[in-house]
UniProtKB/TrEMBL annotation:
Family: Belongs to the Dps family.
Basic and acidic residues compositional bias, start-end: 176-190
Pfam families: Ferritin
Entry protein name: DNA starvation/stationary phase protection protein
């Protein structure tokens, strides 16, 4: 018999079961975010077109690989804490707090504009989780710090394509992925 319970009955030595359960809860959403990000990156990889195609196409594969490794590390931490990592598409869709990426076939700069907002969302939510776990678990804190280091670097790679020589970001002020894609595309056409 298998169990999909998410509340641990035990956790790692030195943490209370209650604290372990809170970590599992926080990491469950980080796992969903990372799985969603890896799929979104692959979607962009398959649907990017235009003169910057090959640069963006090839830039994204190492990001996909690293984000998948982050998801694996996160799932393994959930297991170590006594929780059950839920990696199914149904669990991701049911529990996520963000909308699905909805840019289809588009030029590279438009996708990068939308991806900038995707990275902003995941970096902000990782930082919020980090602030909470840092109060009581340095091991999970270290995991999230390492992930943030890579996620912020990946966003920098994206933003390098969207920044003017004067330091203006084409996606500044965009509130949705579609707005960011449109702003980046229009800025790139100028």
């Amino acid at each position: 018999m298998t169990s999909s319970r998410t509340e641990p009955k035990y956790t790692v030595p030195g943490l209370s079961v209650q604290d372990g359960g809170r970590l599992v809860e926080l990491l469950r959403l980080r796992l969903h975010a990372l799985n969603d990000l890896s799929l979104t990156l692959k979607h962009i990889h398959w649907n990017v077109v235009g003169p910057h195609f090959i640069a963006i196409h090839e830039m994204l594969d190492p990001q996909v690989d690293r984000v998948r490794a982050m998801a694996d590390d996160t799932a393994e931490r959930v297991s170590a804490l006594g929780g059950v990592p839920l990696g199914t598409p149904g669990a991701l869709v049911a529990e996520r707090t963000w909308d699905d990426y909805d840019i289809g076939r588009a030029d590279a700069i438009a996708h990068l504009g939308a991806l900038d907002l995707v990275y902003t969302g995941i970096v902000e939510s990782h930082r919020a989780a980090l602030a909470e776990v840092g109060k009581f678990d340095p091991v999970t804190e270290d995991l999230l710090i390492g992930q943030l280091r890579s996620l912020e670097q990946f966003q920098w790679f994206v933003r390098a394509h969207l920044e003017s020589s004067g330091g203006d970001l084409a996606t500044a002020g965009a509130r949705t992925e579609n707005e960011a894609a449109r702003s980046a595309h229009e800025d790139g056409v100028r």
